[in-house]
TrEMBL record:
Protein name: Type II secretion system protein
Keyword presence, Transmembrane: yes
Cellular location(s): Cell membrane
Principal place of residence: membrane
Domain called Type II secretion system protein GspF: residue spans: 154-278
GO CC terms in record: plasma membrane
Membrane topology: Multi-pass membrane protein
Keywords recorded for this protein, A-Z: Cell membrane, Membrane, Transmembrane, Transmembrane helix
Pfam families: T2SSF (PF00482)
Length: 320
């Protein structure tokens, strides 16, 4: 009976986890999603547009989390973190995602090991899983942005030399840019249209996109607007510097490939050996799962492998 209750709890937690996880990779932005939802509700009629009990309860839960777990500073930091990741989540929804992840990892580990000793370790792991997902998404998003940046600057240079203003040059870039760059430039242009100065709009872009290459470009634009000069010439020098940096980063990535592969082997080799031993002689490995000392040794081994993997990644990550 106890196992059935745990399984049902895990299944319901998994469904909630899956629904929030789906929103992490929602291509459509939040505003457009909400507009489309209200359009559909209006077409279906006012009676059908009323929120069901589940939505009301979910809204109440979000408000409770916002009041109990999120201070003003933490809310601002989470909003910046989520915007850098490009996910349509609010801070309270992210906290819900963490709670569900903790419940899932703890429940699954209890079903596998049938021991309460491992629950604190798996709870910590579950707490950090959403953050690891978003950090990985943030890195990929920043990489795509940096890849498009040299072409963006080159297009701005061409537009400026053709007689366009800086804001008009940004609009011409936005029409041809990739999805991430287009989204950010659209927000910058909208802020300028609402009265925000060019410097403030670009600095807010730098907050959302912590790119060193972008920072270099923004500093050049801000200085040029303060002291004057030919912006196209300055940006031309900057884009050459950025392309040289990208070239050097590619060379370093090639030279450190062996080290990164070693890190992957360090992390995977114990797992593969454990599976092989379990297939050949289950009693050798089975002992580790049958008593508290064995489970503690397994946890220490897993943590050590993870630390070794990230240390090697850190050593081979050379900044240019």
């Amino acid at each position: 009976m106890k196992e059935l209750v745990v399984v049902l709890f895990l299944f319901s937690s998994f469904l909630l986890f899956l629904s929030i996880f789906k929103r992490l990779f929602l291509k459509e932005n939040r505003i457009q999603y909400r507009v489309n939802r209200y359009i559909v509700q209006a077409e279906q009629g006012e009676d059908k547009a009323k929120s069901p009990r589940f939505n009301i309860q979910l809204k109440y839960t979000k408000n409770h989390i916002r009041k109990k777990f999120l201070t003003k500073d933490k809310n601002v930091k989470l909003e910046l973190f989520l915007s850098r990741s490009g996910v349509p989540l609010k801070p309270e929804e992210y906290v819900m995602f963490q709670f569900i992840s903790i419940a899932l990892t703890s429940g699954i580990s209890y079903l596998i090991f049938e021991s309460l000793l491992i629950l604190p370790f798996t709870a910590v792991l579950g707490y950090y899983i959403p953050k690891m997902i978003l950090v990985n998404k943030q890195k990929r998003r920043l990489k795509d942005f940096n890849d498009d940046l040299p072409e963006m600057i080159s297009t701005i240079i061409g537009a400026l030399r053709a007689g366009f203003s800086f804001q008009q040059a940004l609009k011409s870039v936005m029409e041809e840019a990739g999805p991430i760059l287009k989204e950010e430039l659209k927000l910058v242009i909208k802020e300028m249209q609402y009265g925000t100065s060019v410097e403030d709009a670009l600095n807010q872009l730098k907050e959302r996109m912590p790119s060193e290459d972008l920072d270099l470009m923004i500093q050049a634009i801000v200085i040029q607007r303060q002291v004057g000069g030919n912006l196209a010439t300055v940006l031309e020098k900057i884009v050459e510097t950025i392309r040289d940096r990208i070239k050097i980063q590619g060379q370093i990535s090639t030279l450190t490939a062996q080290g990164r592969l070693s890190g992957a082997i360090v992390g995977l080799l114990p797992v593969i050996l454990g599976l092989i031993l379990y297939i050949i002689e289950p009693s050798y490995i089975g002992t580790l799962f049958e008593n508290a000392i064995g489970i503690i040794l397994l946890v220490v081994a897993i943590v050590s492998c993870i630390i070794g993997f990230f240390l090697i990644r850190k050593i081979t990550a050379i900044e240019v």
